[in-house]
Design brief:
This protein is mainly alpha-helical. The protein has helices spanning about 35-60, 80-90, 90-95, 105-130, 160-165, 180-185, 215-225, 235-250, 270-280, 285-305, 315-340, 350-360, 370-375, 380-394; strands at about 195, 210-215. The chain contains 14 helices and two strands. The chain has a two-stranded antiparallel ribbon. It is elongated.
Length: about 400
């Protein structure tokens, strides 16, 4: 019984022969030291060989009596880098100089040309849609507000606020009071804005499209910043945080804030992590009394949340506990120094050493890795600062 040259089995080929494996092109060849012109020539030869081989294999698969053998083994092709494909798309002259091109590369280049043509067409259409509409009949009553006895009307988050958040302008949270948001909605001409190009990473966005955002430098001069807790009261802080969270929820494309335990996605993480951050502080014991103490840490960690840092309850508990402990000790020392037992008595070094020892005994948890918590000020750096603060009270 004769052995078939290509199939490597005795004739006739059995019905359970694996024809599919004969139609798979081997892994790509190493392109090192091969110019694009040489690779194109080799790929054209290999492509013709593979097409003939596949045709013979398919014929044999369909009629093993008439076509006794499958096609010869397929040949591997040379790959092309993304940069090379980009150059071929951009220059028809280059295609001629390094050609002829294999059919699969010609199809890829033409496919990209077609996509670019469709994109230019949609862009021109969007520009037509951006033309100024007719003034007559353009004043439409939107965002209707109905008064309910005993309740505040719903607060509308304007697009300029959403665009500013989307473009990472980090709006101070005290700008999110109900009064400020109403001013943004109804008196935007009294505020400072500017036009910027749409974030090109946004879906359905174009670098030609411009949107209005806050002019942060001028607005900070008008409304101030939120680095100190005195910019608003604890109750106003809650109001602003709720409105800020509502804006982040609006920016969610698919996820909702109702399921914080759902798997995180890049789009959902900001609102969900901000919600966890807000819940931690608003439910903290003695919220109003401790608010001035932990606010600086809350401000820093809030901005880190908006930069992409994940919430860590253990880390937050550690930081806030240490801040409260140090504040309590400082107050006790200040009170003891304000009424000395003797007019001539001064606090001794042993008193200060005892206080420093108490601070040094506070347990320090290792902060989460950078990927989870971002860059935080090391607590080992803060301890000398606390010691200096204690000595300054003397």
């Amino acid at each position: 019984m004769a052995i078939l040259t290509n199939a490597g089995v005795a004739s006739p080929i059995a019905e359970d022969f694996d024809f599919q494996s004969r139609l798979v092109i081997p892994p790509a060849r190493d392109p090192t030291n091969w110019s694009m012109h040489l690779r194109n020539a080799q790929n054209c030869l290999a492509e013709t060989h593979n097409e003939d081989s596949m045709a013979a294999t398919l014929n044999c698969c369909n009629d093993r009596t008439r076509y006794l053998d499958v096609g010869p083994a397929l040949l591997a092709l040379f790959p092309y880098s993304t940069e090379e494909i980009t150059l071929l798309v951009a220059s028809s002259d280059l295609c001629v100089k390094v050609g002829p091109l294999p059919a699969f590369i010609i199809m890829q280049v033409e496919r990209i040309h077609l996509q670019q043509k469709e994109k230019r067409g949609s862009l021109s259409t969007s520009k037509e849609n951006l033309k100024v509409p007719l003034l007559a009949g353009s004043m439409v009553h939107t965002n209707l507000v109905e008064w309910t006895p005993g309740q505040q009307p719903n607060i509308i988050i304007s697009d300029i606020v959403l665009y500013s958040i989307r473009h990472k302008l980090y709006l101070p949270v005290h700008w999110f009071t109900n009064e400020h948001l109403q001013l943004v909605q109804h008196r935007l001409h009294d505020l400072h804005t500017k036009l910027i190009r749409m974030d090109p990473t946004s879906e359905s966005s174009s670098s030609e499209l411009k949107v209005s955002v806050f002019n942060m430098q001028k607005m900070t001069m008008l409304w101030g910043n939120d680095t100190d807790h005195s910019c608003f009261s604890p109750s106003k802080w809650k109001e602003c945080m709720r409105n800020d969270l509502a804006a982040l929820v609006i920016l969610l494309p698919t996820a909702t804030i109702t399921d914080p335990d759902a798997p995180l996605t890049p789009e959902a993480s900001f609102a969900i992590e901000f919600s966890k951050h807000f819940d931690f502080f608003q439910s903290y014991i003695n919220f109003k009394e401790t608010y001035p103490t932990w606010y600086a840490f809350e401000w820093r960690s809030r901005n880190e949340i908006l930069e992409g840092t994940l919430f860590s309850r253990a880390y937050y508990l550690q930081e806030v506990s240490i801040l409260l402990a140090v504040t309590k000790e400082l107050k006790a020392i200040k009170d003891s120094l304000s009424v000395p037992s003797s007019p001539t008595k001064q606090p001794s070094d042993s008193d200060l050493r005892g206080t420093t020892k108490l601070i040094s005994s506070v347990p320090i948890l290792n902060p989460p890795p950078h990927s989870a918590m971002g860059n935080h000020v090391s607590l080992h750096i803060m301890r000398p600062m606390w010691t200096r603060a204690l000595r300054s009270l003397s």
